[in-house]
Amino acid sequence: MSAEATSPGARSRRRGRTSIDLRRLGRAALLGPASRDRLPDAIGHVADAHRAHHPDADLLVLGKAYVLAEMSHRGQFRKSGEPYITHPLAVTLILAELGAETTTLTASLLHDTVEDTDVTLDQVRAEFGDEVCYLVDGVTKLEKVDYGAAAEPETFRKMLVATGNDVRVMSIKLADRLHNMRTLGVMRPEKQERIAKVTHDVLIPLAERLGVQALKTELEDLVFAILQPEEYERTRTVIADRATAGPGLDTIAEDVRRTLREAGITAEVVIRPRHFLSVHRARLKRGEMRGTDFGRLLVLVGEDADCYAVLGELHTCFTPVISEFKDFIAAPKYNLYQSLHTAVAGPDGAVVEVLIRTHQMHKVAEAGVVALGNPYAPVDGAEPADGERADPTRPGWLSRLLEWQEAATDPDTFWTTLRADLAQDREISVFLADGGMLGLPAGATCVDAAYAQHGDGAHHCIGARVNGRLATLSTVLVDGDTVQLLLAHSPVQEAHGDGDGGDRDSDEGPRRARGGRGPGRGQGPEHPDDVRDPARGLPQDAAPGPSPEWLDHARTPAARIAIAGWLAANPQSLKVPAAPPRPQGAVTAGRRGVANVVVDVPEANVRLAGCCTPVPPDAVTGFTVRGGAVTVHRAECPAVGRMTALGRVPVVVSWGDEAACRVTLYAESFGRPRLLADLTEAIATAGAAIVSANVEPPSEQRVRHTYTLQLPDAAGLPGLMRAMRDVPGVFDVRRAQHEPAS
């Protein structure tokens, strides 16, 4: 485990034990089981770690599982030359250190027996019970002989379905992958890279969603070392040389301890070093690293109320960076994580990030679902009324995953969609007009909400209300929004706005379209024969259903799979009605000049995508959308991969000959005299002209500047942003997310 991935309590417990020698364990394993009255020597470390978290645990079942595993794997060796039994022992020790309960440890000892030996599931069930058998079956791979190239995707599908019923399945898989990654050096480089990519795309996001940060951070570093070896070595050098990066965290940590001591708050203040990938990301974001950038301060207290008391003292006695404050105690993350996040500025202007949590919160933050012990143990002996296990993490992401994977019958579709779904690492909650609630990934739109609420019924969605106002289906939802989806045959529309939560108080006229399909926003149409669906831009007598543009708006796999399935079954919907001829004066060549983009489509209407806001010299590509317009995206934009997977043919796009570009930058800084003069001087020195500038009034000693700049050469943009960041007091400079050209 990495230094960051351990709690102070666990660290002190391990300090008293000898380090683990897998070769010694291997020799002990070869000697066979010990006598009946004591555990085998090879499992002693596991027993010590398990008793540290569960003092009353019955270790006899662990000894019994070890004997079966050792006898089954006897004669098998890993590629490193060690006896194979060292692998299940190491996996079990990882879980024991995290606080897993006895059933999970028993299954982890046996997790490879059914897959690699003659032991059967029936034998495991007979000796250890249904729960252990279910966990072992959940992590057992499918045979490549039976499934061919689909073996890996289908194995993960099987594992995820099993995780939906018992999250301990994925806990064992994550620990299994961590030990395999630790010992991956004996593999061929190409196999190392393949395993590392799957770990990066699938298992690390799953570890994040299950809250197992201790495993996630070490997996990230191991993958980083394999996939980006040069950057990894550079980061290692930066960490080794951090003594030259200026004052570190020790001084501020001591100041915090003294402040809390004087306030009478009992707290443990520890320095929490960043792991390698975290340092790499900070270096890319901030450029030159300061001593305080190599870690965070972690403040551990006894009660929830003490967290807020610590926060008050820090914000009173230090200069807070208000924009960095987040309260994950009042609103926990979807992966059980709870903590207060803040940042304070030291005397020299260096910013220090601070995490404040209770000891119990810290345990859950590190071990996630593993820290729950047995989450399915009946409370006071009472079993769930419906006979089904409640999900202990309430993860909307897992419920959605289990739903859409049923529709993804093709293994390639499932595998591609799974990676895309797991790449979305934040969740929002939106409320329905009827009082329900939906959990959606960040960036989800009304299209996603429609399919999450109505399934295939969302094919007939024509619009939405967000927070009481009419909105297009492409509207991006934010946490806490209230959304009402309007369907073509919804009771609200058939009643002309007199239904619950409908248009009773709006100024809209009666719906005149057949089947109740109206314009979906604003006033009713003046002529019944000219009614169009604004969500799709189609005449109302067209076949009801989604348009291809919906795929550009959908973020959830369930929505994308449903839309793609409907479009495949209704190919006539892809035929775009011919637009009336435009007068010669309406040619959009001027717009192409504004965007400085050249497309391989004569007289095309060109617009820059708002999702990725490309500027020269970004690598770009384009796609033709309804009406013959061409939308230009950055080559690395996720939308490009989605449209390519759907068979959309890219359009050749290039930047024009003009090297100049206009860009809007935001600069965040602390207020100080001459700051504006220093910033404008840095901009002028970099050769950029200021088109417009806006400086907001200081708020909590923080100032936000907005500059629209004209650059003679777009290649100078990174250097300009670095020069602005180097101005004392400036802690962030970023490009604005401007809207696409209209």
Which features characterize this protein?
742 residues, alpha+beta, six-stranded mixed sheet, five-stranded mixed sheet, 29 helices, 41% helix, globular, disordered N terminus, disordered C terminus
Description of the molecule:
By secondary structure, this protein is of the alpha+beta class. Helices cover 41% and strands 15% of the residues. It is built from 29 helices and 23 strands. Strands 1, 2, 3, 4, 5 and 6 form a 6-stranded mixed beta sheet that branches. Strands 8-7-11-9-10 form a 5-stranded mixed beta sheet, with helices on one face. A 4-stranded mixed beta sheet has the order 15-17-16-18. Helix 8 packs antiparallel against helix 9 (130-139), helix 9 crosses helix 12 and helix 13 (189-209) packs across helix 21 (411-422).
A few lines on this structure:
The chain is of the alpha+beta class and 742 residues long.
Number of helices: 29
Structural class: alpha+beta
Mean pLDDT, as a whole number?
76
What summary fits the major beta sheet? 6 strands, mixed
Global morphology: globular
Poorly predicted spans = 1-38, 490-543, 576-594, 738-742
Q: State the helical fraction.
A: 40-55%
State which percent range the strand residues make up: 15-25%
Cα gyration radius (Å)? 29 Å
Record field, number of beta strands: 23
Distance between the termini: 52 Å
Task: Give me the secondary-structure topology.
Layout: H1 8-15, H2 22-30, H3 44-53, H4 60-73, H5 86-98, H6 102-109, H7 113-116, H8 121-128, H9 130-139, H10 144-147, H11 151-165, H12 168-182, H13 189-209, H14 213-227, H15 229-240, H16 250-262, E1 268-273, H17 276-286, E2 295-301, H18 304-317, E3 319-320, E4 326-327, E5 340-345, E6 351-358, H19 359-367, H20 396-407, H21 411-422, E7 427-432, E8 437-441, H22 446-454, E9 461-466, E10 469-471, E11 482-487, H23 491-494, E12 532-533, E13 538-539, H24 549-553, H25 557-569, H26 589-595, E14 597-599, E15 606-608, E16 620-624, E17 630-634, H27 638-645, E18 650-651, E19 653-655, E20 661-670, H28 675-685, E21 689-695, E22 702-711, H29 717-725, E23 730-735
Parallel strand pairs: 2-6, 7-11, 15-17
Antiparallel strand pairs: 1-2, 3-5, 4-5, 5-6, 7-8, 9-10, 9-11, 12-13, 14-19, 16-17, 16-18, 20-22, 20-23, 21-22
